Here is the input.
Amino acid sequence: MLKSTDCLGNSDPSYEIPAAQAARTPKLDRTIELRLRDLRLPMRHAFTIALGTTTVQHNLLVELQQDGMKGYGEGASSHAYHAFTADSMRAALEAARPQIEHESLDDPSTLWDRLLPVLGHNRFALCALDQAAHDLWGKLRGAPVWKRWGLELRNLPLSNYTLGIDPIEKMVAKMKEFDGWPIYKIKLGTPDDLAVVRELRRHTDAVFRIDANTAWSVEQTLALAPELKTLGVEFIEQPLKADDWEEMRRVFRECPLPVFADESCLVEEDVPRCAGFFHGINIKLTKAGGLMPARRMIARARELGLRVMVGCMNESSVGISAIGQLLPLLDYVDMDGAVLIARISPPVYTWTRVARFFLTRMATESGCWILLNEPAHPRNRSHQPLGYHCRGDGRGGLAGADVSLGRAAKRAGACVDHRDSAGEHPRGADGIASLRIRRRLAGAAGHPAAALPRQYS
Here is the structure.
């Protein structure tokens, strides 16, 4: 007779199994396997901020596998940080592959600390790996990551929907595509920013947030802020250059609206610098290096009396699902990245549907629940395209919106590059689609309707 073990390989003394049966039971593989895949995601609209324009987002998908479970993370490239591309992230992770695949996954936070010396030069790559590690960690333990952290789904903040810079009439049209969203973030840095906000205000009574992405001077900020406040703006994100600390001190003292740091607050060491210069910080997991440092940044910000927001890059629901784990810790959140990705069909996703779906899944599903839908046969791509399907599987990980890459990708021009470590393409690079948040909603059981304002529940 042999002792049985649970899915982690721990001894379970509650019962014993016959030796003959044990001989037929496959042994668990405790090693970690790393896989890297390119994601090319067409944007719904050309996404323009003060720092550049994106039409196709090129990200890196990281997969960690252990004991038959798979965890996923995403590294998102950005115009503002030219050194951190999908290719540079891939190169950094390939260089660290021997150490990664030699590691154990007992605790993602200690794993992060052990890998910081070899990946600290590329926090974007480290973020993708950290997300995948948390996803796998939760799945192996059959619980959502937020619950493993001891958090509760109470008083969750609402996400904004972001409007990139465009001619005013197009910005109005983009807002109407998602009519009824409770909060809109407006990207500014145009010749007539007030005209943009005035016109948008004519079409909605939603809360506005402004993100200048370092485009303004101190004089512009102080001149625009009073009217922006009367137009229903909640706060201003990063009005000045990231290193313009003395001018930011003046903005902090004189601006009638709260100001939040983004480009001025990238990593843990930046948080204490922001006290006395900003009222809050916007943490980006990609820039910080993942969930583990983001939690430490949140804790430090609370100690300093700073308000806390977590924002996203242009990324799929792999990255967005990681942000979802932090919701109980936040004052504000910007997690609309997957909604900004193109879809073939006309937009049909109201705020109510997206919010209800996300919160239902987060409350009722365990872990990260991100899965890859592999084709039945690698040559059958035309009938069964390879797609990324983020959903609850009841086995743990990060909880987030349900997003799939569907069949219409060839028409959309999106592709995933399934290169292995040798640079080969075992399944081809064509045949996946733009991101699509599924309209189907989870059942009512366990849905935290109280987390939504009455008008959106």
In short: The CA atoms of residues 272 and 303 lie 9 Å apart. The first strand starts at residue 2 and ends at 5. DSSP finds 15 helices and 18 strands in the chain.
